[in-house]
Amino acid sequence: MEKPQGVLVMAYGTPKNPEDVAAYYTHIRGGRPPEERLLRQLQERYRAIGGRSPLYEITRAQAKGIEDALQEGGAGRYKVYLGMKHTAPFLEDAVDEMHRDGIERAVALVLAPHFSKMSVGSYFDRIKSHHGERTPELRYVDHWHDDERFLDFAAERVERELAKFPEDVRDDVRVVFSAHSLPARILREGDPYADQLHESGDEVARRVGLRHWMFGWQSAGRTEDEWLGPDIREVIKDLRRDGHGHILLCPIGFTSDHLEVLYDIDVEAQALARDLDLELRRTESPNADPAFTSALAAVARRRLEEP
């Protein structure tokens, strides 16, 4: 029987319970424990969304959905492995598991559609550093922001949420596409991240037939660096100042319900919207929707089949 091909699904990771927050934050900071003030702020954010993020369970469900979709083409042809950047099972653990299983060829896929060397690229650097010359042969999916099935899925989510606005205000709804902010120096370095956000947002807008859309950034890090902007909170304020009372956020750079969605949008941005007396909605996260995981399975399969 032919050996299965591997699919290494990679995600950021999240603390599995409140007691893990300090270790998680320390790992993000390269082993440097955070200041007590910063740790308390992060813990407060988790408490505001119910004590913990559902990201781990969602990521596992996404990986299973990808494997289930791949098996539709023939059971046993593919095996999916899950690795996290900042919590167990770590990226390196997944690579070691593939090696023990005798996987000879695999594709590495990050659950983020847009490429930056600081985000997706950092996953690849970790894998390459750990993997060395051992099997399996690894192929990397740099980005999938322009995948037709992904764009169709995102467009359907925008259309579904737009339909929830009263019919008489839909022409006034401003759609804001967002992704995680990164240090602005990536623009000077020719990084494609910002351009890819615009490409995917513009294409979704074309599919939906939007008349008004724009872009914003969210969840910037707490460092002295200049980060990509404008922040979505400033976009919301500017739109209200211009007389618009209905906004739809589409966090197209995120694929799961997690802190950057459940707190930064559903708590923080919604509080701002209430203060400004405007209606703010967001598109539903892809999570483990079969249409979404099937699209990612197709991306992985296509990369494995390339010469």
Topology:
Elements: E1 5-11, H1 21-28, H2 36-48, H3 55-71, E2 78-84, H4 91-100, E3 105-110, H5 120-131, E4 137-140, H6 148-162, E5 174-180, H7 185-188, H8 193-208, E6 213-218, H9 232-241, E7 246-250, H10 259-262, H11 264-275, E8 279-282, H12 290-305
Parallel strand pairs: 1-2, 1-3, 3-4, 5-6, 5-7, 7-8
Describe this structure in words.
- The protein is 45% helix and 15% strand.
- It is α/β, with parallel strands linked by helices and 307 residues long.
- It folds into two domains: 5-145 and 288-305, Rossmann fold (3-Layer(aba) Sandwich); 148-282, Rossmann fold.
- The strands form two sheets. The chain has a four-stranded parallel β-sheet with strand order 2-1-3-4, with helices on both faces. The protein has a four-stranded parallel β-sheet with strand order 6-5-7-8, sandwiched between helices.
- Helix 5 links the parallel strand 3 (105-110) and strand 4.
- The longest helix has 17 residues, at 55-71.
- It is globular.
- The model has no long low-confidence stretch (mean pLDDT 95).
User: Widest sheet: strand order?
Assistant: 2-1-3-4
| Strand fraction | 5-15%
Give the overall average pLDDT. 95
Element pattern in H and E: EHHHEHEHEHEHHEHEHHEH
CATH topology of the largest domain: Rossmann fold
The top-level CATH class of the largest domain is Alpha Beta
Low-confidence stretches: none
Radius of gyration, whole Å: 20 Å
Number of individual domains: 2
Termini separation comes to 22 Å
SSE-based structural type: alpha/beta
Helix content: 40-55%
- Number of H/I helices: 12
Shape descriptor reads globular
- Beta strand count: 8
**How is the main sheet built?**
4 strands, parallel
CATH architecture call of the largest domain: 3-Layer(aba) Sandwich
